[in-house]
Amino acid sequence: MPLTILCISSYEKGHDFMREAKQQGCRVLLLTSKSLEGAAWPKESIDEIFYIPDKNKDWNIRDVIYGVSYMARTEEIDRIVALDDFDVEKAAALREHLRIGGMGDTTARYFRDKLAMRTLAQEMGIPVPEFIHVLNHKKINEFAKKVKFPYMIKARMLAGAYGMKKVHNEQEMWERINFLADEQSFFLMERFVAGNIYHVDSIVYEHEIQYAVASKYGTPPFEVAHEGRVFTSRTLDPDSENAQKVLALNERLLKALGLKRGVSHTEFIESSEDGNFYFLETSARVGGANLHLLVEAATGISLWREWAKIEILKGEHPYSIPKPKPDFAAIITSLSKQEWPDLSSYNDPEVYWKLNKEYHAGVIVSSPDESRITELVDKYTQRFYNDFFATAKMGERPND
Question: Same structural domain for residues 139 and 56?
Answer without folding.
Answer: no
